[in-house]
Design a protein that fits this description.
alpha+beta, 6-stranded antiparallel beta sheet, 296 residues, paralog of FGE (formylglycine-generating enzyme)
Length: 296
Amino acid sequence: MSVALAPHPLAGGHPPAWASEWGEDERGVFVAFSVGEVTQRLRWFRPGRFLMGSPEGEAGRFENEGPRHEVTLSRGFWLGDTPCTQALWEAVAGDNPSRFVASKRPVEQVSWEDCRAWLEALNERVPGLGARLPTEAEWEYACRAGTQTSTYAGELEILGANNAPLLDEVAWYGGNSGVGFELDNGWDSSDWPDKQYAHERAGSHPVGEKEPNDWGLHDMLGNVWEWCEDAWDYGTPYDSADPVRDPVGHKGSGRVVRGGSWDSPARDVRAAARLAYVPGNRYDYLGFRLARGQEG
């Protein structure tokens, strides 16, 4: 699907007042903000259209990923180039709820409700930032980065429950998350079936270690599932195959999570894969990535 060539918000050379860094590189336009000594970079995504969901026959597909349908995003948005780190969470909240403690690892054991409260606190600390959770459609659009394959690295060949070699370059998942894992409180992964690599203990990894997608986003697949804004009851399909504009799910008691995690089997680590959790749930594989709207 084509992407509209709308101007980006920094085109006039006027970055927002809260920006601590801005520019453009081979991946696109970026801006950053800082809280104390911690900096988070955001990537710009122009308005555009894409096909949301997975086609029938995609390896690992779940029925709730259909029907595939055209989505138009009429406004651009910003998205963090990594999941929120423990360092950034702690700089705002003063505490760290994570199991796998390290400043550059993604924050986890945070509920949807926790994330919403933290974002409010961040916006007080950084006036004008307007940070929020991404919608599910924004998340998938950014994850795909112009591709229509099951991952932004290409079509996934699943050789076993935790064995999809294509993922090794872009994602921490059940097949490789024990490789190089150094903490003493990892999950016992010795009995996980069909692992790409042998490992005995697994958990999250520092953000940004795997290759980004073509639009400059790291860890969109794997490491931690990422909360989205949308309400949804797990298992239900999309409403229809009709084209939609700027969708946000409002039906259901759960909240969408996307991207798969360090303990996910290969089939969960695809652009279209979706789960939902109760908004108060906290698990050591649940994190988030912040977004903001088009203005300023």
